Amino acid sequence: MEANGVVEGNGDGAEEAGCFDIGSLGRCLSSFVDEGSPESHRYYLSRRTLFEMLRDRGYSVPSSEIGQSLQEFRAIHGQNPDIDRLKFSATHKSDPSKGYGSSWMLVIFCGTGVVKVSSVRVIAAQIVNRGSLTGLILILQNQITNQALKAVDLFTFKVEMFQITDLLVNITKHVLKPKHEVMSEREKQKLLKKYSIEEKQLPRLLKKDAIVKYYGLEKGQVVKVTHTGDITESHVTSRCVW
C-alpha cells in the first residue's frame, strides 16, 4: 500500500531491483576475498606478467600460461610454490630478418633471501645450451650484493633483473599509459631521414624506464609512442633509448 508517498511492499521485489539481504551481500563480498597465501598470489601475478612480456618481445609463449587462472596455478604449485618449479624458458619465433634464429630466454626466480655470489653459482649451474641463450631474466625478492652483481657481469649473455613487486601489474595495460611500439632499424632510419635529424636529436628514454625494461631495449633503439585522450586528439612521438 502507499502512505505519505512511501510505497510499502513485502520485499519480494528487492532482488529484482538489485537489492540483497545481509546474508547474500556477505556471500557476494566474500567471493572477492582471496583466502589463499599472499606468496602464491604474488608468484602467479609476476609469472603471468613475464609470459606476457616475452610474448610482446616476440617469443613463443603458450596461451594457456597467460590465460591460467589463480586457482589453476595453485592447483599445480600449491599455496607455497617451489621457486625451482617456477623457472621456465621461451624460444624466440624464428625470424632471420631480425637475427634471432633459434635463440631462447631463460627465466629464474630467486629466493626471498639476499642474493649472494653463492646464489649466482647455483643459477649458473642451472643453465644449459648457453650457445643459443639470448639472455637470462632473474626475478629478485630481496637485495643483491655488489659481489653477486660482479659475478653476474661475467656471464657471456645478457642478464636482466626485476624485483618481483615490479611485475605484479603489466604496465603496458595501464589505461593511462600511451601505446609503445618498438621500431625496427629500417623504420628508425626512415624516420631520421624523413626529418633530416640524427639519433641524438630525438626525445630520450632512459635505460631505467619501465617500458625500456619491459621490452628489453638497448641504447639507440627507437620507440613509437601514441598518445590518445578524450580531450586532445591522438598524436605520435618517437623516443630513443639513451
Automatic annotation (TrEMBL):
<feature type="domain" description="RNA polymerase subunit H/Rpb5 C-terminal">
    <location>
        <begin position="169"/>
        <end position="241"/>
    </location>
</feature>
<dbReference type="GO" id="GO:0006366">
    <property type="term" value="P:transcription by RNA polymerase II"/>
</dbReference>
<dbReference type="InterPro" id="IPR005571">
    <property type="entry name" value="RNA_pol_Rpb5_N"/>
</dbReference>
<dbReference type="GO" id="GO:0006362">
    <property type="term" value="P:transcription elongation by RNA polymerase I"/>
</dbReference>
<dbReference type="InterPro" id="IPR014381">
    <property type="entry name" value="Arch_Rpo5/euc_Rpb5"/>
</dbReference>
<dbReference type="Pfam" id="PF03871">
    <property type="entry name" value="RNA_pol_Rpb5_N"/>
</dbReference>
<dbReference type="InterPro" id="IPR036710">
    <property type="entry name" value="RNA_pol_Rpb5_N_sf"/>
</dbReference>
<dbReference type="GO" id="GO:0003677">
    <property type="term" value="F:DNA binding"/>
</dbReference>
<feature type="domain" description="RNA polymerase Rpb5 N-terminal">
    <location>
        <begin position="39"/>
        <end position="126"/>
    </location>
</feature>
<protein>
    <recommendedName>
        <fullName>RNA polymerase subunit H/Rpb5 C-terminal domain-containing protein</fullName>
    </recommendedName>
</protein>
<keyword id="KW-0539">Nucleus</keyword>
<dbReference type="InterPro" id="IPR035913">
    <property type="entry name" value="RPB5-like_sf"/>
</dbReference>
<dbReference type="GO" id="GO:0042797">
    <property type="term" value="P:tRNA transcription by RNA polymerase III"/>
</dbReference>
<dbReference type="InterPro" id="IPR000783">
    <property type="entry name" value="RNA_pol_subH/Rpb5_C"/>
</dbReference>
<dbReference type="GO" id="GO:0055029">
    <property type="term" value="C:nuclear DNA-directed RNA polymerase complex"/>
</dbReference>
<dbReference type="GO" id="GO:0003899">
    <property type="term" value="F:DNA-directed RNA polymerase activity"/>
</dbReference>
<comment type="similarity">
    <text>Belongs to the archaeal Rpo5/eukaryotic RPB5 RNA polymerase subunit family.</text>
</comment>
<dbReference type="Pfam" id="PF01191">
    <property type="entry name" value="RNA_pol_Rpb5_C"/>
</dbReference>
